[in-house]
Amino acid sequence: MSTQSVDVIVDLQYGDCGKGKVAHHLCQTKNYTHVLRYNGGANAGHTIFHRGKKFITHQIPAGVFFGIKSVVGNGCVLDPIQFFSELKMLEEGGIDISDKVFVAENTHIITEAHRSEDKREGVRIGTTGRGNGPAYRDKYGRTGKRAIDVPELKPYLINLYQEWHGGGDTQILAEGAQGFGLDIDWGDYPYVTSSHCTTAGVLLNGLPSRAIGDVWGVAKMYETYVGSKKFQPEGEVFNKIADAGEEYGATTGRRRQTNWMNMQTLERAIRINGVTHIVINKVDVLRIVGQWVIYDQNTKAEFKNEDEMKHFVTERLKKLGITESNIFFSESRERI
């Protein structure tokens, strides 16, 4: 009888929190048989520094950098043009992709018609215009096209039921796209993405709930958002944060709006996702700016220094059941 063990990476804010860095770290420290991308499409981007080179991946999971089977799951939508472009980029960067990259045969496809439609209508809520929304709509409207119907993808297709439950034991790292604040059900609707960005989204890729092990939540020491809603308050400090943090989208290049971390939003995401480990990135950015602030219970809590803010956050996270040894504060280019 086959067994599955699944560790999950989930973004606790609005995306762009450094999930790729966490995936890169875990791929080196645990013996995963697979890395699964469980939601989203080419509208997301992971920025990964590997052996001195910078790679931006949009659909292919981070396991490919370490020779681990990397699977685009059926919870995703796939743009074949972007997929093959990404494969070429990885090969040209010296990454061996042979027999390492796979696509679930029941993954839905983003077509040219989806991209064209999204570019016309996506301005309304600030989407990336990559076709995700129309592709997911057609998936649930039962008019979509799936990977098994695309001849060019045949060498990469995989049946996830057979892969997970076919007799062998699997140890899977499930990496998510976007963030909890953009989840179709739990985000700030309608300013959301079209997929499930939560730990529960992993299970939609053919995995049983009992397989879930560690859940790595990822956040930043402040918040960022890309889209058309008003997110950034007035004040030059928020522009300074964006400049210091180099806050530009890996997929669109759009400048991200910034704000202070909201403790209640973070706590909500931790509870719903069942977070066991948390990485809070870019602590060096507030150090550069010289201000340390958190919104807590609709009040702005200001701290004298970085250590005071870290202590406050740590104590709150411990009350949520996360042990102190599983709380990590990380700088922009620092390894975990």
TrEMBL record:
Instruction: Tell me a Gene Ontology molecular-function term this record carries.
Output: magnesium ion binding
What is the reaction catalyzed?
IMP + L-aspartate + GTP = N(6)-(1,2-dicarboxyethyl)-AMP + GDP + phosphate + 2 H(+)
Which residues participate in substrate binding? A250, T251, T252, G253, R254, R255, R256
Q: Which positions are annotated as binding GTP?
A: G45, H46, T47, R256, K282, V283, D284
According to its record, what are the GO cellular component terms? Answer: cytoplasm
Keyword terms: Cytoplasm, GTP-binding, Ligase, Magnesium, Metal-binding, Nucleotide-binding, Purine biosynthesis
Q: Which SMART domains match?
A: Adenylsucc_synt (SM00788)
Which positions does UniProt annotate for Mg(2+) binding? D16, G45
What EC number(s) is this enzyme filed under?
6.3.4.4
The record's cofactor note says: Binds 1 Mg(2+) ion per subunit.
Residues annotated as catalytic: D16 (proton acceptor), H46 (proton donor)
Chief location of this protein?
Answer: cytoplasm
Q: Which PANTHER family match?
A: ADENYLOSUCCINATE SYNTHETASE
> How does this polypeptide assemble, per the annotation?
Homodimer.
What name does this protein carry?
Adenylosuccinate synthetase
